[in-house]
Amino acid sequence: MAAKALLFDIDGTLWDGHPVYAQALARGSGIRAGEILLRLKQPGANVVRLTDQLGVSRSAFVRECRRNLGLLRLYPGVRRTLEKLQETELAIVTNLPASLVTPMLDDSGLAEFFPIVECAARKPGAAGLIRALAALQRTSTDSSYYIGDSAWDAAAARAAGIRFAWASYGYAEAVASPDVVLARFSDVLRL
Questions:
Q1: CATH number corresponding to 5-16+73-190
Q2: Which of 100, 128, 156, 172 has its CB surrounded by the most CB atoms within 10 Å?
Q3: pLDDT exceeds 80 at position 172
Q4: DSSP for 112-133, written as a single string
């Protein structure tokens, strides 16, 4: 049975935001972008937590990210694949704040595909996924997947009672026992 709803994480799933974040944090902290990029690639790294650790205000971080949106890179096949999913209900569930997600979705041209966007979801908790499913008028018993790249994403999917598809092409943090492994973004068409 084909999935009725696909819920997506953003970073490491739809795009690589690390260059944008590294440039923004470098400007706000005085630390070189290359060093920040290395920190972001560490297992379990969290850009919001790193922003706090470097003493960069959230508003300055968002402002600088918006200035650097040209560095945002979609993973291969994202737009083409989303265009093929017109019969499937789509949503975003991310830990990132709306003040950052909204301009990034708009600038990347992906906003049109996602009528539901749940930001600051506090994963690994399930509340963001449950809210997104409710907004799509779906329940955890419907055929739905959460697609993400991290153990937090997998835990959130399990807590919400939906299947998890691991985006192994993304930030490639090992995830134990995903329901499906995606080698490339276009593999979501198999769901």
A1: 3.40.50.1000
A2: 156
A3: no
A4: GG-SEEE-S--TTSSHHHHHHH
